[in-house]
Amino acid sequence: MLRQRIATAVVLITLCVAGLWFVPNWAWTLGVAAFFTVGAREWAKLTGLGGVMTAMFCTAVAVSICAPLVGVPLAWVACGWALSGIAWALLMPTFLARGAAVRKASVPVGWLVLAPAGAALAWLGQAPWQLLSLLCIVWIADTGAYFAGRTFGRHKLAPSISPGKTWEGVAGGAACVAVYVFVLQATDAGAAGPLAGAPGWALAVTLTALSVLGDLFESLVKRQAGAKDSGTLLPGHGGVLDRIDGLTSTLPVAAFAMYLSPG
Questions:
Q1: Band (117; pLDDT cuts 50, 70, 90)
Q2: Which pLDDT band, with edges at 50, 70 and 90, does 147 fall under?
Q3: What gap in Å lies between CA 92 and CA 100, rounded to an integer?
């Protein structure tokens, strides 16, 4: 399983890097939209949407991600990022705390989870190194939590939602992110960009916490659906939602922060 997980991650990272550096932005955006549409299909299946509603939902997600390609102002897209950030700060924790049925609000919640994140990934792709530095936070936090949890995990984070996640894993992931940001800021690579200086630390802390929230929320949706994984497309990981859960909660906030930052 671990070998499969690593092999799949290597393939995905390779495709990501190739897409960011070697294809035009419009093609990157279409690729992101296609990938997130697969995630939308998985969401629809997990939350019990019918055939017609599934098609409409997937179309809405794809169109929202591709909106800038047809001239939709970036300010409108940024409103979606802000709305998503508010939802992750207020709405998703409410679902987690109460164990409320996500399927009752499948379409609006699913759109908030997927569309702003996909649009953020597409837009941030215009600055590949900056996007990669932000993606690394989620990847490092996830990997650090995985190994720290397996090695030191004793205290469950949310046993009724995701029994495998522990506070030790969260701490391990956060520690790995702290080392990453420290090293980044100590080198020329961190002299500019979204993770520079004190604001960079604030953003890194925020994104690390949000990545855990995104992971837990997807676990809640899967548990309510009685599913172990969101799909089978990615060996060792499951489905697309299993791979982008941390991105759905972090990328809209990161993009909105970049949108608001001067210069």
A1: very high
A2: very high
A3: 10
Q: What is the DSSP letter of 164?
A: E
Q: Is 219 helix (H, G, I), strand (E, B) or coil?
A: helix
Strand partners, 158: 162
188 CB burial (10 A radius; 0-12, 13-18, 19+) = exposed
11-20, 86-95, 167-176, 230-239: range with lowest mean pLDDT:
230-239
The rounded distance, in Å, linking the Cα atoms of 37 and 75 is 23
**By the 8 A CB rule, do 229 and 43 touch?**
no
In 226-262, where does DSSP find H-type helix? 240-260
Q: In the chain, how many domains are there?
A: 1
Q: Which pLDDT tens digit goes with each residue over 208-234?
A: 999 999 999 999 999 999 998 898 887
- Which range marks the domain in which residue 238 is found? 2-260
Closest CA to 253 of 108, 130, 116, 110: 116
Give exposure, 10-31, as e/b (b: 16+ Cβ within 10 Å): eeeeeebeebbeeeeeeebbbb
Are 43 and 136 a contacting pair, CB within 8 Å? no
Under 8 Å between Cβ of 216 and 162: yes
Is 190 a residue whose pLDDT tops 80?
no
Judge whether 223 and 89 are in contact, CB under 8 Å. no
